[in-house]
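Order emerges. One example.
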Amino acid sequence: MPLFAFPLYLFLGRNKFRGHKKSIRRKIDAHRRKLQENKNQATSNKIAAASEEEKVFETLAESQFFSGNQTRILKDGKAAFGALFDSIRGAQDYILLQFYIVRNDRIGKELKDLLLEKAKAGVRVYFMYDAWGCTFLSKSYISELNQKGCQMRPFEIKHKLRNFFQVNFRNHRKLVVVDGRIGLVGGLNIGDEYCVSQGKRYWRDTQLEVTGPVVHSLQASFLADWSWATDTTLKVNWTSNGEVGDKRILGLFTGPADSRENGSFLFLQAILSAKKRIWISSPYFVPDDAIMKALELASIRGVEVILLLPKIADHYLTWLASFAYMPEVVGYGVKIYRFFPGFLHQKAFLIDDEFAAIGSANLDIRSIRLNFEVTLLVSDRRFVSEVASILEADMKQSELFNPKDQSRFGTPLKIASKFARLFAPIL
């Protein structure tokens, strides 16, 4: 179908970052070197001896696990935005913010007013948003922040002829750093819908607040993105505050600028290293073939494989595509729970009793290959138990997927799901 396929290819066909890949890699590598040079006080917080599983994750991250961190799981929008606003109010030097979507609604205005207040008090504010994700954000929102002491800049593909049509390579990270001391990572963007806690529009999401040495790795990621997008460098705090807790955490920053397909490898390593259980919560389930086989093989090995997905859709094409994958993995013994009280937007997974992760990456090909994502992997049994309790509570508000239930929808759903699967590489 060349008349349709070629125009679509112009917009969606590329999965390599090409010249930009080299450019952003230079920025990433430069800030990683800076992070390494300024870790003298944090040397004791870096884990020297790692298990075999940890070494693989460290290789993917091109970094190491840090000890001495504290964590706080923020289970809903009220808790997440409360923590975000509290950390901003306490800022003394600078605030780094990075979001895929920003809305000029109640939450967006509250954030804007707070940032303007801090900028007036002399705190430096650097706010990066994705140009595609914020297509409908009003220009007045951006200009007001820029005119009153903040710096709000887009992450967008450089406007060269070969990139003119591209909508791939989005920065999907949701990341905040305050004074190099406090970090927040997770699935929440800036918008009122993330605060709905009941009713038909209920939005179920999770954010993670961290303090300790690992915050500097979040900071290094932001600086690399900012430097590439704006061609400027920022002066930030690299002095370690020492150990503030007992959690070991690794920051993984994946995307199309990676030298390997680290987004896919992250999920593959998580699934293949599991001995007893691998639980994954994701709003979308559009995996590549390798992840499909890994899930099936893990179940064959006797691992408890559980996928927690939404029953309610927000993007119907992606939601339909998932029906083409679910019956296959269920046939191998994978359990799929579909969350029904509202839309499940949570991105988290746990491996046995050893590791748990919270971040921005979905279990779909776009997050695996085309988007810039952030994941914090925590090696701590108590943290894993805390995440497991949250996922178990979500499962109690979910129904177990049975392929036979699809039969009541008949042939139309089968045709629609197979048609949607054709678009899997860009969903």
